Amino acid sequence: MASFFDEAYRGSPPWDIGRPQAEFVRAAKEGEIRGRVLDVGRGTGENAIFFAGLGHEAWGLDASPRALEKARKKAVERAVRTRFVLGDALHLEKLGQRFDTITDCGLFHVFSDDDRRVFGKSLKSALSRSGTYIMLCFSDREPANWGGPRRVTRDEILGAFSRGWKVNYVKEARFSTTFNDEGGQAWLSSLTST
Length: 194
Prior knowledge:
- This protein has one domain: Rossmann fold (3-Layer(aba) Sandwich).
- Helix content is 29%, strand content 27%.
- The protein contains 6 helices and 7 strands.
- Helix 3 links the parallel strand 1 and strand 2.
- The two termini are 30 Å apart.
């Protein structure tokens, strides 16, 4: 999968909208983004750069060297300090770091059911005690003929985080792409590690 995404970043993939996702801007304004932040599956860094601009110690992790190269360049151009690392979101323990908030914009929905279980454990290895995972993924409410990635049901989210997590909310949201600035139908979830 990493090679697919690295190839996609030769150009500008449809999920790379050139600004942070509106749902994460709102979450930050409402105080949901706290302390040290890790943005997983980061792509070209828009959310991590946004969080750093708000004064957070922000990290971004991605498996695509091309995406990270673009992210680092953006951070320099915008004079924002962020740390971007090449890595696997299924093995966040390898970072040897703990974060108060982990954000995910479009990564969860690319994982298989088995990988989702691994991902939940990986998240816990990198979250501080009572840390929060905030995730935006495409919803099953998006029409099937729309194309794009796997759609996720609310029940799939609740099932993936049924043990060792407190579900703060799973609510309807929008996921902006270059295809649809209004955004595709999505779920925004907030889950706290217990």
